[in-house]
Each structure stands twice: as structure tokens, then as C-alpha cells.
Input
Amino acid sequence: MLMRTDPFRELDRFAQQVLGQASAAARPSAMPMDAYRAGDDFIVHFDLPGIDPESIELDVERNVLNVRAERRSPAPEGAEPVVAERPTGTFTRQLFLGETLDTERIDASYEAGVLTLRIPVAEQAKPRRIHITGGDSPKQISG
Output
């Protein structure tokens, strides 16, 4: 289903641990996600709290799904930050989808800070029962 995710995700986590959380606020991190198959659908959830749904962009090209979202600072321009721990900026994630998914029929919804994608499994990838036709009836051999 899912061919590959962001190869630098573990490196980002390690850098945040070593350099501290202050560096995480300066640079937006990758959007966390969960992915699983449920029946005939492949479901992906992305955590995007505080994101305006109008700023979310999704596109698919040759089975590569690109997700882009932007979170702006709620502080007015010119305000002096006292504490700024919530990351702002552009968040991106790229998923390499397998040939078994129908990328023409992706359904996307955004609720409570979670972007949910429902990607149907392609008809040709679904298991199907093969009917076996009977051959000649068994012949009796007399001796």
C-alpha cells in the first residue's frame, strides 16, 4: 500500500532530542501521521492542529501524494513574542503510494485538527474468487 515515507523523519526526531525543543519551534517539523487499511480503503490521518483548512493543498502525481499546509502565527504583526513554542510556517509530507490504490478517488476531510484521507483500494488489487468449472464426470473402470 504505502511504499515509503519521509526518510529524514528519524533524523529530525534525533536532532530535536539533541538540540532541544527550542530548535523545533524555529523550524516546522514533519506532520505526524497514522496509516492503515480498513476493508477496501487505505486510511491516512495527519495531525495538523491550528491549520486553516483553506491553507491545505493535496496533489497526486504518478502515485506520489503531496500534502502541504501552512500555520501562521496568531500574534499581530509587530507584536513582541514572550513565548513562541508552537511551530509556524509550511508543513509538507510526501507519500509514495503503491499501484494497488485508486488515486483518482481520494476523499479528504479535516476535522478537529486531523486531516483524514480515504484512498480506495483499486478494483484490480482486491481479492476475488475464481470460479472453477467442472471437467468430465469421473469414469468407472471395470475390470
Q: What stands out?
A: The beta strands are 2-4, 33-38, 41-47, 57-61, 64-71, 89-97, 107-111, 114-120. The longest helix spans residues 9-19. Residues 72 and 88 are 5 Å apart (CA to CA). The first strand starts at residue 2 and ends at 4.
